[in-house]
Amino acid sequence: MVARPPRTAELPAAPPGPGRRLPLLGASYKFGARVLRAVPPGLRHGAATPGGAAWFWLSRAQRQAALDNYGAALERDRNDPEVARVARRAFQNYGRVLMDFLLLGSLTPVELTARVTVEGREHLDAALERGRGVVFAVPHMGSWDISGSYAAALGYSVTAVTEKFPGSLNDAVVQSREKFGLNVVMLGRSAVRGIINALEANGVVALLCDLEQGPGVDVSFFGRRAVVPGGPAAIALKTGAALMTATQYATAPGRYHIHLDAPLDWGSAATKESLMQTVVHRFESFIQERPDQWYAFRPMFPGGAPREKGSARPRHGGESPP
Q1: What is the distance between the terminal CA atoms of the chain, rounded to a whole angstrom?
Q2: C-alpha 213: how far from its chain's center?
Q3: Is the CB of residue 248 less than 8 Å from the CB of residue 259?
Q4: What is the tally of structural domains in the chain?
Q5: Domain contains 263
Q6: Is 16 a domain residue?
Q7: Cβ neighbours of residue 217 under 8 Å, at least 6 residues apart?
Q8: For residue 11, is it within any domain?
Q9: Which residue range is the domain that position 109 belongs to?
């Protein structure tokens, strides 16, 4: 999933109908990708610094939400200058992620795999040997599109659940995502069947689950009440698929590293709430290591005020608690 780009400017002629305006979105997306491809990488990524800063200051609602979220992650008051600095850098970094996403469709498999490194691949291979598929629980960090495409380019059967873009823009985006073999399932009721089918075929399903998106489960996130999707845990409990936490982050302009944890261990008393709390505790560690590569620009904490974390962190795989 990526943030929706600004609405394409329309020509001052007669108001275009859906059949004329929506194809323009897909064409604009492809044109933008060609333009970016021609721009030197240093200049391209450098432009995200002033652009991201402008976005931070001009989008008041997103700025205010980000200050709350990064204040919680940094364990500082939202008015602390360091919180604003990290939030502003996150807007700038996300601008670079969007540019890399635009370029994705123009890359060759060799170019893509050369831009990504991975740690913990042995955990994925061992989980797939069980034959019940793998559910990846992933935070909004790094470039999830590049990570999914990279795994597909390596030969893994990867399914990603994504939001639908308007008209021809959705067709263009899906085409880019599927270029390397990534299977795209649109968010909605039909997504459940697509996920189950992928797991029954011993595939990998990647789900972003650190930000509220419809009904979810209550968790303690940085000591505050938050609501996150319960799907990853519910699906793993229902199907017996391995549930793994993972993250990705930029290491240099246009280059990313993927970290895969060992599968979560859980007993017969586990619930989707307890499993998602385990997942979120792991996300806290990922985010605190690189807060400016976490992209949380909408309200996360309904109450706003911190609360005590009520439960100890459950054991994660065979590793020490994070």
Answers
A1: 27
A2: 13
A3: yes
A4: 1
A5: yes
A6: no
A7: 227, 228, 229, 230, 233, 272, 273, 276
A8: no
A9: 21-293
Tens place of pLDDT for every residue, the chain, 322 residues?
A: 433 333 333 333 334 444 444 577 666 666 666 666 667 777 777 888 898 999 999 999 999 999 999 999 999 999 999 999 999 999 999 999 988 988 888 889 999 999 999 999 999 999 999 999 999 999 999 998 899 999 999 999 999 888 776 666 677 777 778 888 888 888 877 788 999 999 999 999 999 999 988 779 999 999 999 999 999 999 999 999 999 999 999 999 889 999 999 999 998 899 999 999 999 999 999 999 999 999 999 999 976 555 444 433 433 333 333 2
**Residue 110 in tokens:** 């060799």
Sign of CA dihedral 53, 162, 228, 129: negative
Contacts of 183 (CB under 8 A, 6+ apart): 152, 157, 158, 159, 160, 194, 198, 203
Using an 8 Å Cβ cutoff, are 236 and 242 in contact?
Answer: yes
Spatial separation of the C-alpha atoms in residues 160 and 232, rounded to whole Å: 12
Fill in the amino acid letter for 83: V
Instruction: Label residue 131 left, alpha or beta by phi (over 0 means left) and psi (-120 to 50 means alpha).
Output: left
Pairing of strands 224-228, 242-252: unpaired
Is position 7 within any domain? no
User: Distance between alpha carbon 165 and the CA centroid of its chain, in Å?
Assistant: 16
Sign of CA dihedral 258, 242, 282, 88: positive
